[in-house]
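>> received
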Amino acid sequence: MKPECDIILLSYESPDLLKRCVQSVLERTKVRSRLIIVDNASRDPGVARYLHGLHGSGNVAIEKVFSEENAGFAAGMNKGMRLSEAPFLCLLNNDCVVADGWLEEMIAVARSRDGIGLVNPQSNTFGSRPDEGVSVKDHAALIKDKKGKFVELGHAIAFACLLKREVVERIGYLDEAYKGVCYEDTDFSVRAQKAGFISVMAEGAYVFHLEQASRRSLKGREEIYRRNREIFESRWGRLLRVFFLDRPAGNGNRLAENYEILKNIARERAIVEMWIGHDHPAAGIRDEFDGKNVIRHADIGVNVFPGSFAAPAILWRVLTKRKKYNAVIMEDGFLLRCLRLLKPFHGAEVFAREEGSRLRSGRQGLFDLKEPAVLAEYLRGI
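>> returned
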């Protein structure tokens, strides 16, 4: 029987990490799979010794590929991806430990909507870290009630990332222009999004990631990061930061509609802060969203200003923001005019929100949040 998923595990040095990762996959993967281990020219003899003696389990067959040189993360993963014929592919770092049900839950989330193309699991990488003395297995059991739920991501991270085959068929493999490691997964996510797919995090699947463990011995790491970031930003532009004020509040339908509109700009590589003048805590607002089945986006933060203190708090927030906003969006009024006068101090373009998703800039006329690429291009160009 053909595998439902090909797991591509990139190995480099660190035989103890590799053993721990592989053992967790063999013991905790119930989906019929093939584990394709690509060794990126490890020099530690313990790696080859371990791999030569390794055999599959009932659900997981094993295939091994030994590269003659370390060509980096993208090239190594691509070797395994080109061998894959399964409906799903899962990229996996050797510094991960998977929990029970990790793969079947990621696949279930991927199948739940046609537009989902890339799926990460919940992880300490996203802030879900086991307490001291708590095992990965016991920590993962705490999120069982999250099965079927997911959060949209600005981009997926390749430490443990499920891909639909149709995504690979549509956009190809990881771009090997990114040498070493970093930004190749972000680039892949952006290309997938341009092709109509979104990246999500499956809240009911769990993988522990010993972050950076596989990168510590990487020579010239800072230079590699700098170069790859330059390549990425030359293609897709720098990250944007947007402040959006929704006031007066009190209408849950309107809040949910505005949140959906803001997803458009978040998908253009923007961190969006949605601020609400409201007498209820932010948790109450999020409950309203959950009640309306709004799919949350990880790059949209929902925050609340107490209504009576909103104006001075907003001015202070915009003026003192350490990582400056590129855009401030709010309804026309005294506060907006003050922020336009103070632009030399905060540097953001200030937009008056008009009917629906339309915005008016003091300099360039009308924009529309439903045409986010035009707005993003403008913000990156000023």
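>> The first strand starts at residue 5 and ends at 11.
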